[in-house]
Design a protein that fits this description.
The protein is an alpha+beta fold. It contains six helices and six strands, in the order αββββαββαααα. The protein has helices at 3-17, 66-77, 106-122, 124-131, 133-146, 157-160, and strands at residues 20-25, 28-34, 40-47, 51-59, 84-87, 93-100. Strands 1-2-3-4-6-5 form a six-stranded antiparallel β-sheet. It is elongated and about 60 Å long. It starts with a helix and ends in a 6-residue tail after the last helix. 22% of the residues are buried.
Length: 166
């Protein structure tokens, strides 16, 4: 399969799935995947000479509990299909996968994008709880002190419960 054939397979698959995307140039797609915890996950699909790369930013590098945070990612990698967690030069967390041209079919692309959503969205709150618990508590306290909404922090209420907090 040629890179331009893959371009068509990718566009057709994304269109059939009803996903929002921008085609930046031939073989380069910036896809917005819907979520519930992370709300949306942006994902690059880039076709190269020998294969296709899937890359997704998940979260920035953790502020704390580094060992526990990275242990979680390594253990989670064993259960992922087609993509794996990795960190960039500054420690930000990404999901990355590489696929040979012949492996890129509509069905396989759908499966991999589903895994990206399941991982990036499904692991998001856990990653925040492990790597950013102190920041979440400070944000909670700040919002309570100003009478601000806690709606988007509700998933983390257990981190502040029982500590004389709002």
């Amino acid at each position: 399969m040629t890179p331009s054939d893959l371009d068509g397979v990718i566009a057709e698959t994304l269109d059939e799935a009803g996903l929002d995307y921008e085609r930046r140039e031939e073989g380069s797609f910036f896809v917005t995947l819907p979520g519930t915890k992370k709300l949306q996950t942006n994902c690059w699909l880039v076709v190269g000479e020998h294969g296709m790369v899937v890359e997704t930013f998940v979260c920035r590098r953790p502020d704390e509990a580094h060992e526990q945070f990275y242990r979680y990612l390594l253990r989670r990698n064993a259960r992922l299909y087609g993509v794996h967690y990795t960190v960039d030069g500054v420690g930000d967390v990404h999901l990355v996968g590489r696929f040979a041209h012949h492996a890129v079919t509509g069905e396989e692309l759908d499966r991999v994008l589903g895994q990206v959503v399941e991982a990036a969205d499904g692991d998001f709150n856990t990653l925040l709880e492990i790597g950013f618990a102190s920041s979440i508590r400070r944000e909670w306290d700040w919002r309570v002190s100003r009478g601000e909404s806690l709606t988007n922090l509700a998933a983390f209420e257990h981190l502040v419960r029982g500590k004389d907090r709002g």
